[in-house]
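SEVERITY: medium
COMPONENT: batch folding queue
REPORTER: lab tech (J.R.)

DESCRIPTION
The queue accepted two submissions in a row. Attaching both inputs and their returned C-alpha coordinates so the on-call engineer can compare them side by side.

ATTACHMENT 1
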Amino acid sequence: MGDNHEELKNLNDIPIDVDVTIEKRSLIFDDDDMEFWPTVVSKTYFWSNQEKNIGQWIQHICSIFRCDSYEAGFSIGKRTFGDIKSIRNTFPKLRKIVISCEPNEQDITSAQNILRAFQPETVHLYSAPLQENLQHTGMRNLKELEIHSPHLNPRIEDLLTMNVERCTILGTQFSLRDLNRFFKLWTKGSNRRLNYLFVHGEGVADWNALMKGLQAGEAIRIQGEQVEREKEHTIQNCYGICGTIKMINIRLVVSVEFTVLN
Protein backbone atom coordinates (compact mmCIF):
# COMPACT_ATOMS: atom_id res chain seq x y z
CA MET A 1 0.00 0.00 0.00
CA GLY A 2 1.14 3.53 -0.73
CA ASP A 3 0.35 6.83 0.96
CA ASN A 4 -3.22 7.19 2.31
CA HIS A 5 -3.67 3.43 1.84
CA GLU A 6 -3.81 3.77 -1.93
CA GLU A 7 -3.10 0.67 -3.99
CA LEU A 8 0.24 0.64 -5.74
CA LYS A 9 -0.15 0.35 -9.50
CA ASN A 10 3.11 -1.08 -10.87
CA LEU A 11 6.28 -2.91 -9.90
CA ASN A 12 8.32 0.32 -9.68
CA ASP A 13 6.19 1.88 -6.92
CA ILE A 14 7.73 2.08 -3.45
CA PRO A 15 5.46 0.94 -0.59
CA ILE A 16 5.24 2.52 2.87
CA ASP A 17 6.06 -0.80 4.51
CA VAL A 18 5.92 -4.49 3.70
CA ASP A 19 3.97 -7.18 5.53
CA VAL A 20 5.41 -10.65 5.11
CA THR A 21 3.56 -13.67 6.47
CA ILE A 22 5.27 -17.04 6.69
CA GLU A 23 3.09 -20.13 7.00
CA LYS A 24 4.36 -23.56 7.93
CA ARG A 25 2.01 -26.43 7.15
CA SER A 26 2.57 -29.80 8.77
CA LEU A 27 0.82 -32.83 10.25
CA ILE A 28 0.52 -33.60 13.95
CA PHE A 29 -0.41 -36.95 15.43
CA ASP A 30 -3.38 -37.09 17.80
CA ASP A 31 -2.83 -39.84 20.37
CA ASP A 32 -6.53 -39.94 21.27
CA ASP A 33 -7.85 -40.31 17.72
CA MET A 34 -4.75 -42.14 16.48
CA GLU A 35 -4.78 -39.96 13.37
CA PHE A 36 -2.69 -37.22 11.76
CA TRP A 37 -4.28 -33.77 11.55
CA PRO A 38 -3.11 -30.81 9.44
CA THR A 39 -1.88 -27.73 11.27
CA VAL A 40 -0.79 -24.28 10.12
CA VAL A 41 1.56 -22.03 12.08
CA SER A 42 1.93 -18.48 10.77
CA LYS A 43 3.99 -15.47 11.73
CA THR A 44 3.81 -11.96 10.27
CA TYR A 45 6.73 -9.54 9.98
CA PHE A 46 6.40 -5.81 9.36
CA TRP A 47 9.38 -4.44 7.51
CA SER A 48 10.15 -0.85 6.56
CA ASN A 49 10.33 -0.21 2.85
CA GLN A 50 14.15 0.20 2.85
CA GLU A 51 13.74 2.29 -0.30
CA LYS A 52 12.92 -0.83 -2.31
CA ASN A 53 10.17 -0.83 -4.91
CA ILE A 54 7.72 -3.73 -5.27
CA GLY A 55 9.83 -5.54 -7.85
CA GLN A 56 12.94 -5.34 -5.69
CA TRP A 57 11.00 -6.62 -2.69
CA ILE A 58 9.83 -9.65 -4.67
CA GLN A 59 13.42 -10.44 -5.66
CA HIS A 60 14.66 -9.89 -2.09
CA ILE A 61 12.08 -12.20 -0.52
CA CYS A 62 12.67 -14.92 -3.11
CA SER A 63 16.43 -14.73 -2.45
CA ILE A 64 15.77 -15.42 1.25
CA PHE A 65 13.24 -18.23 0.86
CA ARG A 66 14.61 -20.44 -1.88
CA CYS A 67 11.89 -22.87 -2.95
CA ASP A 68 11.57 -25.70 -5.42
CA SER A 69 8.50 -24.09 -6.98
CA TYR A 70 6.73 -20.72 -6.81
CA GLU A 71 3.15 -19.61 -7.28
CA ALA A 72 1.84 -16.06 -7.69
CA GLY A 73 -1.56 -14.40 -7.63
CA PHE A 74 -2.11 -11.26 -9.72
CA SER A 75 -5.09 -9.09 -8.78
CA ILE A 76 -4.83 -6.69 -11.69
CA GLY A 77 -7.46 -4.03 -10.92
CA LYS A 78 -5.87 -0.63 -11.53
CA ARG A 79 -2.40 -2.12 -11.81
CA THR A 80 -0.70 -2.45 -15.17
CA PHE A 81 1.72 -5.14 -16.27
CA GLY A 82 2.91 -3.83 -19.61
CA ASP A 83 6.58 -4.80 -19.83
CA ILE A 84 7.00 -8.54 -20.37
CA LYS A 85 10.77 -8.43 -19.92
CA SER A 86 10.44 -6.55 -16.62
CA ILE A 87 7.85 -9.03 -15.33
CA ARG A 88 10.03 -11.99 -16.28
CA ASN A 89 13.15 -10.47 -14.69
CA THR A 90 11.33 -9.58 -11.46
CA PHE A 91 9.75 -12.91 -10.59
CA PRO A 92 11.26 -16.38 -10.32
CA LYS A 93 9.98 -19.10 -12.61
CA LEU A 94 6.33 -19.59 -11.64
CA ARG A 95 4.73 -23.03 -11.62
CA LYS A 96 1.21 -21.71 -11.00
CA ILE A 97 -0.42 -18.35 -11.75
CA VAL A 98 -3.77 -17.04 -10.51
CA ILE A 99 -5.10 -13.96 -12.32
CA SER A 100 -8.09 -11.86 -11.25
CA CYS A 101 -9.13 -9.15 -13.70
CA GLU A 102 -12.07 -7.36 -15.25
CA PRO A 103 -13.30 -7.92 -18.82
CA ASN A 104 -11.79 -4.73 -20.21
CA GLU A 105 -9.01 -4.21 -22.75
CA GLN A 106 -6.38 -2.95 -20.28
CA ASP A 107 -6.83 -5.85 -17.85
CA ILE A 108 -6.86 -8.42 -20.65
CA THR A 109 -3.62 -6.97 -22.05
CA SER A 110 -1.99 -7.22 -18.60
CA ALA A 111 -3.19 -10.82 -18.26
CA GLN A 112 -1.74 -11.63 -21.69
CA ASN A 113 1.62 -10.14 -20.72
CA ILE A 114 1.75 -12.12 -17.47
CA LEU A 115 1.01 -15.37 -19.29
CA ARG A 116 3.55 -14.62 -22.01
CA ALA A 117 6.22 -13.88 -19.42
CA PHE A 118 6.07 -17.15 -17.51
CA GLN A 119 4.54 -20.02 -19.51
CA PRO A 120 3.35 -21.71 -16.27
CA GLU A 121 2.10 -25.27 -15.77
CA THR A 122 -1.14 -24.23 -14.03
CA VAL A 123 -3.36 -21.19 -14.67
CA HIS A 124 -6.47 -20.08 -12.77
CA LEU A 125 -8.44 -17.18 -14.28
CA TYR A 126 -11.11 -15.20 -12.43
CA SER A 127 -13.52 -12.96 -14.38
CA ALA A 128 -11.31 -13.02 -17.47
CA PRO A 129 -13.29 -13.61 -20.66
CA LEU A 130 -12.09 -16.53 -22.74
CA GLN A 131 -11.33 -14.49 -25.81
CA GLU A 132 -9.29 -15.91 -28.66
CA ASN A 133 -6.39 -13.51 -28.08
CA LEU A 134 -6.16 -14.55 -24.42
CA GLN A 135 -6.81 -18.22 -25.06
CA HIS A 136 -3.75 -18.66 -27.26
CA THR A 137 -1.42 -16.55 -25.11
CA GLY A 138 0.80 -18.53 -22.76
CA MET A 139 -1.88 -21.20 -22.33
CA ARG A 140 -0.49 -23.89 -24.58
CA ASN A 141 0.36 -27.30 -23.14
CA LEU A 142 -0.88 -26.46 -19.63
CA LYS A 143 -1.20 -29.18 -17.05
CA GLU A 144 -4.21 -27.47 -15.50
CA LEU A 145 -6.54 -24.64 -16.52
CA GLU A 146 -9.33 -23.41 -14.25
CA ILE A 147 -11.64 -20.57 -15.28
CA HIS A 148 -14.20 -18.79 -13.10
CA SER A 149 -15.98 -16.32 -15.36
CA PRO A 150 -19.56 -15.06 -15.52
CA HIS A 151 -18.51 -13.06 -18.61
CA LEU A 152 -17.67 -16.13 -20.65
CA ASN A 153 -19.71 -16.76 -23.78
CA PRO A 154 -18.78 -20.43 -24.15
CA ARG A 155 -18.14 -21.96 -27.54
CA ILE A 156 -17.32 -25.56 -28.33
CA GLU A 157 -14.32 -24.25 -30.29
CA ASP A 158 -12.82 -23.00 -27.02
CA LEU A 159 -12.82 -26.52 -25.63
CA LEU A 160 -11.56 -28.06 -28.85
CA THR A 161 -8.48 -25.83 -29.05
CA MET A 162 -7.42 -26.08 -25.38
CA ASN A 163 -4.37 -28.29 -25.35
CA VAL A 164 -4.49 -28.90 -21.59
CA GLU A 165 -4.44 -31.99 -19.35
CA ARG A 166 -7.05 -30.82 -16.81
CA CYS A 167 -9.71 -28.19 -17.52
CA THR A 168 -12.39 -26.78 -15.21
CA ILE A 169 -14.77 -23.99 -16.29
CA LEU A 170 -17.17 -22.58 -13.71
CA GLY A 171 -19.59 -19.65 -13.65
CA THR A 172 -20.93 -20.25 -17.14
CA GLN A 173 -22.78 -22.97 -19.04
CA PHE A 174 -22.21 -25.01 -22.19
CA SER A 175 -25.13 -26.41 -24.13
CA LEU A 176 -25.50 -30.18 -23.91
CA ARG A 177 -25.62 -30.30 -27.71
CA ASP A 178 -22.17 -28.67 -27.91
CA LEU A 179 -20.80 -31.02 -25.26
CA ASN A 180 -22.18 -33.94 -27.25
CA ARG A 181 -20.26 -32.69 -30.27
CA PHE A 182 -17.12 -32.34 -28.15
CA PHE A 183 -17.33 -35.95 -26.97
CA LYS A 184 -17.96 -37.21 -30.51
CA LEU A 185 -14.80 -35.45 -31.68
CA TRP A 186 -12.89 -36.90 -28.73
CA THR A 187 -13.88 -40.42 -29.81
CA LYS A 188 -12.40 -39.56 -33.24
CA GLY A 189 -9.04 -38.60 -31.71
CA SER A 190 -9.20 -34.89 -30.78
CA ASN A 191 -7.89 -33.47 -27.47
CA ARG A 192 -5.47 -36.33 -26.89
CA ARG A 193 -3.76 -34.58 -23.94
CA LEU A 194 -7.00 -34.11 -22.03
CA ASN A 195 -7.28 -36.20 -18.86
CA TYR A 196 -10.09 -34.37 -17.05
CA LEU A 197 -12.87 -31.90 -17.88
CA PHE A 198 -15.49 -30.35 -15.60
CA VAL A 199 -18.07 -27.83 -16.88
CA HIS A 200 -21.62 -26.73 -16.17
CA GLY A 201 -24.32 -27.73 -18.63
CA GLU A 202 -27.14 -25.54 -19.90
CA GLY A 203 -30.79 -26.35 -19.19
CA VAL A 204 -32.13 -29.52 -17.61
CA ALA A 205 -30.24 -32.77 -17.16
CA ASP A 206 -31.09 -34.34 -20.53
CA TRP A 207 -28.95 -37.45 -20.79
CA ASN A 208 -30.29 -38.27 -24.27
CA ALA A 209 -29.13 -34.90 -25.63
CA LEU A 210 -25.67 -35.34 -24.12
CA MET A 211 -25.12 -38.89 -25.35
CA LYS A 212 -26.92 -38.79 -28.73
CA GLY A 213 -25.00 -40.79 -31.34
CA LEU A 214 -22.30 -41.93 -28.90
CA GLN A 215 -21.63 -45.62 -28.46
CA ALA A 216 -21.40 -45.96 -24.71
CA GLY A 217 -21.32 -48.71 -22.15
CA GLU A 218 -24.15 -49.43 -19.76
CA ALA A 219 -25.07 -46.46 -17.59
CA ILE A 220 -24.36 -46.37 -13.88
CA ARG A 221 -27.06 -44.51 -11.94
CA ILE A 222 -26.84 -43.01 -8.47
CA GLN A 223 -30.15 -42.12 -6.82
CA GLY A 224 -30.68 -39.47 -4.17
CA GLU A 225 -33.74 -37.93 -2.53
CA GLN A 226 -36.08 -39.73 -4.99
CA VAL A 227 -34.32 -38.03 -7.91
CA GLU A 228 -31.58 -39.36 -10.10
CA ARG A 229 -28.60 -37.21 -9.06
CA GLU A 230 -25.76 -38.76 -11.05
CA LYS A 231 -25.44 -40.86 -14.16
CA GLU A 232 -22.28 -42.21 -15.76
CA HIS A 233 -21.36 -43.71 -19.14
CA THR A 234 -18.07 -44.96 -20.57
CA ILE A 235 -16.98 -44.12 -24.12
CA GLN A 236 -13.91 -45.12 -26.14
CA ASN A 237 -11.89 -43.21 -28.72
CA CYS A 238 -10.23 -44.47 -31.91
CA TYR A 239 -7.00 -45.17 -30.01
CA GLY A 240 -8.70 -47.59 -27.64
CA ILE A 241 -8.62 -45.15 -24.70
CA CYS A 242 -11.71 -45.05 -22.50
CA GLY A 243 -13.27 -42.13 -20.66
CA THR A 244 -16.21 -41.79 -18.31
CA ILE A 245 -18.88 -39.11 -18.75
CA LYS A 246 -20.75 -38.27 -15.57
CA MET A 247 -23.75 -35.96 -15.35
CA ILE A 248 -24.43 -34.51 -11.91
CA ASN A 249 -27.74 -32.78 -11.18
CA ILE A 250 -27.76 -30.92 -7.85
CA ARG A 251 -29.91 -27.90 -6.92
CA LEU A 252 -30.90 -27.03 -10.49
CA VAL A 253 -27.25 -27.01 -11.59
CA VAL A 254 -26.26 -29.57 -14.20
CA SER A 255 -22.57 -30.44 -14.19
CA VAL A 256 -20.73 -32.65 -16.66
CA GLU A 257 -17.50 -34.40 -15.61
CA PHE A 258 -15.28 -36.26 -18.03
CA THR A 259 -12.39 -38.43 -16.82
CA VAL A 260 -9.98 -40.26 -19.11
CA LEU A 261 -9.07 -43.72 -17.82
CA ASN A 262 -5.43 -44.78 -17.98
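ATTACHMENT 2
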Amino acid sequence: MAAKILPVVKFATKVTIAGGALYVAYDSGLLGGSEQGSVALGRAKAAIPPAVEEWMKYFGFELPATPKIVFSPLDAWNSGVKKSIHALSVAPSTVSDYTKQGLQYVKDHSK
Protein backbone atom coordinates (compact mmCIF):
# COMPACT_ATOMS: atom_id res chain seq x y z
CA MET A 1 0.00 0.00 0.00
CA ALA A 2 2.84 2.40 0.82
CA ALA A 3 4.37 1.70 -2.59
CA LYS A 4 1.21 3.02 -4.25
CA ILE A 5 0.90 6.13 -2.08
CA LEU A 6 4.56 7.21 -2.23
CA PRO A 7 4.53 8.30 -5.91
CA VAL A 8 1.34 10.28 -5.30
CA VAL A 9 2.90 12.03 -2.30
CA LYS A 10 6.06 12.81 -4.30
CA PHE A 11 4.00 14.25 -7.14
CA ALA A 12 1.85 16.30 -4.76
CA THR A 13 4.99 17.68 -3.08
CA LYS A 14 6.51 18.69 -6.41
CA VAL A 15 3.29 20.35 -7.56
CA THR A 16 3.01 22.23 -4.26
CA ILE A 17 6.59 23.51 -4.48
CA ALA A 18 6.16 24.56 -8.13
CA GLY A 19 2.86 26.25 -7.35
CA GLY A 20 4.38 28.07 -4.39
CA ALA A 21 7.29 29.28 -6.49
CA LEU A 22 4.91 30.49 -9.18
CA TYR A 23 2.79 32.29 -6.58
CA VAL A 24 5.82 34.01 -5.05
CA ALA A 25 7.06 35.07 -8.50
CA TYR A 26 3.65 36.47 -9.41
CA ASP A 27 3.13 38.14 -6.04
CA SER A 28 6.54 39.83 -6.14
CA GLY A 29 5.90 41.26 -9.62
CA LEU A 30 8.35 39.14 -11.60
CA LEU A 31 5.66 38.06 -14.04
CA GLY A 32 4.33 41.58 -14.59
CA GLY A 33 5.57 44.33 -16.85
CA SER A 34 9.09 45.69 -17.07
CA GLU A 35 8.44 48.34 -14.42
CA GLN A 36 7.24 45.75 -11.93
CA GLY A 37 10.24 43.57 -12.78
CA SER A 38 12.64 46.45 -12.19
CA VAL A 39 11.05 47.17 -8.81
CA ALA A 40 11.26 43.48 -7.85
CA LEU A 41 14.92 43.34 -8.90
CA GLY A 42 15.67 46.41 -6.80
CA ARG A 43 14.00 44.81 -3.77
CA ALA A 44 15.99 41.61 -4.29
CA LYS A 45 19.27 43.52 -4.61
CA ALA A 46 18.49 45.32 -1.36
CA ALA A 47 17.42 42.21 0.56
CA ILE A 48 19.96 39.56 -0.47
CA PRO A 49 23.26 41.04 0.86
CA PRO A 50 21.97 41.56 4.44
CA ALA A 51 20.54 38.03 4.46
CA VAL A 52 23.85 36.55 3.30
CA GLU A 53 25.74 38.51 5.96
CA GLU A 54 23.34 37.24 8.62
CA TRP A 55 23.80 33.64 7.46
CA MET A 56 27.59 34.04 7.45
CA LYS A 57 27.52 35.28 11.06
CA TYR A 58 25.19 32.44 12.04
CA PHE A 59 27.28 29.69 10.42
CA GLY A 60 30.61 31.32 11.26
CA PHE A 61 32.33 31.45 7.89
CA GLU A 62 33.22 34.15 5.38
CA LEU A 63 32.66 34.31 1.67
CA PRO A 64 35.10 36.07 -0.65
CA ALA A 65 34.09 39.47 -1.91
CA THR A 66 31.87 39.31 -4.96
CA PRO A 67 33.37 40.74 -8.11
CA LYS A 68 31.62 43.66 -9.73
CA ILE A 69 30.31 42.55 -13.10
CA VAL A 70 28.98 45.10 -15.51
CA PHE A 71 26.72 43.29 -17.92
CA SER A 72 23.82 44.70 -19.84
CA PRO A 73 21.52 42.01 -21.25
CA LEU A 74 20.06 44.63 -23.57
CA ASP A 75 23.45 45.38 -25.14
CA ALA A 76 24.30 41.68 -25.39
CA TRP A 77 20.96 40.96 -27.04
CA ASN A 78 21.35 43.85 -29.49
CA SER A 79 24.89 42.85 -30.47
CA GLY A 80 23.78 39.25 -31.01
CA VAL A 81 20.87 40.35 -33.17
CA LYS A 82 23.09 42.71 -35.17
CA LYS A 83 25.68 39.98 -35.80
CA SER A 84 23.01 37.49 -36.84
CA ILE A 85 21.35 39.94 -39.24
CA HIS A 86 24.74 40.91 -40.68
CA ALA A 87 25.62 37.25 -41.24
CA LEU A 88 22.30 36.68 -43.01
CA SER A 89 22.73 39.79 -45.16
CA VAL A 90 26.20 38.82 -46.41
CA ALA A 91 25.40 35.11 -46.76
CA PRO A 92 24.56 35.20 -50.50
CA SER A 93 27.78 36.99 -51.47
CA THR A 94 29.83 34.80 -49.11
CA VAL A 95 28.36 31.63 -50.60
CA SER A 96 29.06 32.99 -54.09
CA ASP A 97 32.69 33.71 -53.17
CA TYR A 98 33.18 30.26 -51.65
CA THR A 99 31.60 28.64 -54.71
CA LYS A 100 33.95 30.53 -57.03
CA GLN A 101 36.95 29.54 -54.90
CA GLY A 102 35.82 25.91 -54.84
CA LEU A 103 35.34 25.80 -58.62
CA GLN A 104 38.73 27.43 -59.18
CA TYR A 105 40.34 24.86 -56.83
CA VAL A 106 38.72 21.99 -58.74
CA LYS A 107 39.79 23.47 -62.11
CA ASP A 108 43.39 23.95 -60.91
CA HIS A 109 43.70 20.41 -59.58
CA SER A 110 41.93 18.66 -62.44
CA LYS A 111 44.49 19.62 -65.12
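NOTES FROM REPORTER
Helices lie at 2-27, 34-59, 73-109.
No errors were logged for either attachment.
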